[in-house]
Amino acid sequence: MKCKLGEIAKIYYGPHRTAVMAGTIKYLVSSDFDDSFQPTFFKESYLEDDGTLDKDRYILEENDVIVTGKGKRLFAWAYNSKFGEVVPSSLFYIIKLQNSVVGEYIAHYLNSSRVNHKLKALGAGTSIPSIQKHELAQLEIVIPTLEKQHQIVEIARLMNKDVELAEQLVENKKTLRQGLLNDIINEQVIKEENR
């Protein structure tokens, strides 16, 4: 099935707020995300709950997706409740999907080369790329069956885990190499000193 994003979701800009160093509500900015579009670089950026924040609108819930609306780094991320209470900054659009669509699928769909290229074209023409809300709402989305969406998400999770394990293996090999070289060199130094 093909439809427009605005037909399957409500789309909002994140609020523009001043971050504080401590709090209970995380305030996400683009630099919090790694190359795999995961918020692994979160740097203690929080919001104070002063009672003025529209929590229903801005605090992310399961199945919500955020996508950068401004800037040179364009990506989408599907919220997971294990990350705690989160409000994305005004650099992001918040996409609150209907239940018939899997948020992680939409994030992978938006991050795919073909669709990401379309999004970049929407934001072109200014010194700081910016996607207009109505253009994002008009973006055509291919929605397979729920079963197929879950299969795509599971494949992506397995591939991400594979990459993570491969990166860990490389780091472990570097540590092992350094340790072995240190041992060999230390052995040679001790032999020379004992002569």
Description of the structure:
- The longest helix has 48 residues, at 146-193.
- The strands form three sheets. This protein has a four-stranded antiparallel sheet with strand order 2-8-5-6. Strands 4-3-7 form a three-stranded mixed sheet, with no helix packed on it.
- It has six helices and nine strands; from the N terminus they run E-H-E-E-E-H-E-E-E-E-H-H-H-E-H.
- It folds into two domains: 2-143, Adenine-n6-DNA-methyltransferase TaqI, Chain A, domain 2, CATH 3.90.220; 145-195.
- 23% of the residues are buried.
- With 195 residues, it is α+β, with helices and mostly antiparallel strands.
- The model has no long low-confidence stretch (mean pLDDT 90).
Descriptive terms for the model:
195 residues, alpha+beta, Adenine-n6-DNA-methyltransferase TaqI, Chain A, domain 2, 4-stranded antiparallel sheet, 3-stranded mixed sheet, 6 helices, 42% helix, elongated
Dominant shape: elongated
Poorly predicted residue ranges: none
What characterizes the major β-sheet?
4 strands, antiparallel
Q: Major sheet: order of its strands? A: 2-8-5-6
Strand fraction: 15-25%
- At CATH level 2, the architecture of the largest domain is Alpha-Beta Complex
Q: Helices and strands: which structural class? A: alpha+beta
Kindly state the mean pLDDT as a whole number?
A: 90
What are the secondary-structure elements, in order, as H or E? EHEEEHEEEEHHHEH
What integer value in Å does the Rg equal?
22 Å
Detail the topology: elements first, then pairings:
Blueprint: E1 2-4, H1 5-8, E2 9-13, E3 25-28, E4 46-47, H2 55-58, E5 64-68, E6 76-78, E7 86-88, E8 92-97, H3 103-111, H4 113-123, H5 133-137, E9 140-142, H6 146-193
Parallel strand pairs: 3-7
Antiparallel strand pairs: 1-9, 2-8, 3-4, 5-6, 5-8
